[in-house]
């Protein structure tokens, strides 16, 4: 939810007062989808574990139960792949929205003649990249 984060634009050598810029974008949906799917996978795994351990004879006698279990597992696997791709896309969108060159281009102060704006630091996205890869 980048739109909730204010970004202070500095004034130019005391000629103008600092202004507040709000970043654009809400990239929380892919992460929320991924986390929600993870919670549902965990709950299903716990229920399946109880079924396997406590009601093993029911699972062995009923031929439809293993097929239903397999179908649910395939569905969860597909949705997990979709959620991971969505999370990766959300991360790349956050990177694009917070790129220093994009922020500098959005500042009116930097558009004036003879003004040279540069980014102080580049955001560190290494841990975010690792979270998507893992």
From TrEMBL:
Keyword field: Glycoprotein, Membrane, Transmembrane, Transmembrane helix
Domain MARVEL: 1-134
GO CC aspect terms: synaptic vesicle membrane
Protein topology in the membrane: Multi-pass membrane protein
InterPro entries found in the cross-reference section: Marvel, Synaptophysin/porin
Compartment(s) of residence: Membrane
Main subcellular location of this protein, as a coarse class: membrane
Family: Belongs to the synaptophysin/synaptobrevin family.
UniProt-listed PANTHER family: SYNAPTOPHYSIN, SYNAPTOPHYSIN-LIKE PROTEIN 2
Name under which the protein is recorded: SYPL2 protein
Species this protein is from: Piaya cayana (Common squirrel cuckoo)
Taxonomic classification: Eukaryota, Metazoa, Chordata, Craniata, Vertebrata
């Amino acid at each position: 939810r980048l739109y909730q984060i204010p970004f202070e634009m500095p004034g130019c050598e005391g000629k103008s007062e600092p202004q507040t810029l709000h970043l654009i974008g809400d990239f929380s949906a892919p992460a929320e989808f991924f986390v929600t799917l993870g919670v549902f996978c965990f709950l299903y795994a716990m229920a399946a574990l109880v079924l396997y351990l406590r009601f093993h004879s029911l699972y062995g006698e009923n031929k439809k139960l293993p097929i239903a279990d397999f179908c649910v597992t395939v569905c969860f696997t597909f949705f997990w792949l979709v959620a991971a791709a969505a999370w990766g896309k959300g991360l790349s969108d956050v990177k694009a929205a917070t790129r220093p060159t994009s922020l500098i281009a959005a500042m009116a102060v930097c558009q004036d003649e003879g003004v040279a704006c540069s980014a102080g630091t580049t955001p560190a996205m290494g841990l975010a990249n690792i979270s998507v890869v893992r």
